[in-house]
Amino acid sequence: MFSIRGIDHVVLRVVDLDRSIRFYQLVLGCDVVKRQAHLGLVHLRAGTCLIDLISLDGKLGQQGGVGPGQEGHNVDHFCLRIDPFDEAGLVAHLAGFGISPLGPASINFGAEGNGLSLYFRDPDNNLIELKGPTILAG
């Protein structure tokens, strides 16, 4: 019938669209590939995938109820597979934007197997996991 090739996109409802665009561009290196202002929607390239941001005050955002915050979340988290995984470098990069990881890197299971992950939050309190390559048992 069909086979899944990977995640195509993740859609997040955000309080401040411009702030979130800046965050994803500066912190994660995403590029805006399309804007649909009539919907309050911006598409950002994240490797081979997209992160779509929907403004709460836009047409689509108004359909979703209460916005993200400390007590209400859009999703549990999303994971971006990265190369290389240099924990000290990542921590320093995030610190440059005033962001602290939620803890040290830990080994977690993902699509490619076990690998190191680092977690932090975006401006709307969405949890982001940066995941490195598989750690081979040896």
TrEMBL record:
Pfam families referenced in this protein's UniProt entry, alphabetically: Glyoxalase (PF00903)
InterPro entries, per the entry: Glyas_Bleomycin-R_OHBP_Dase, Glyas_Fos-R_dOase_dom, GlyoxalaseI/FosfomycinResist, VOC_core
Residues passing through the membrane, by range: none
Domain (VOC): residue spans on this chain: 6-133
PROSITE patterns, sorted: VOC (PS51819)
Official protein name in the record: VOC family protein
Biological source species: Bowmanella yangjiangensis
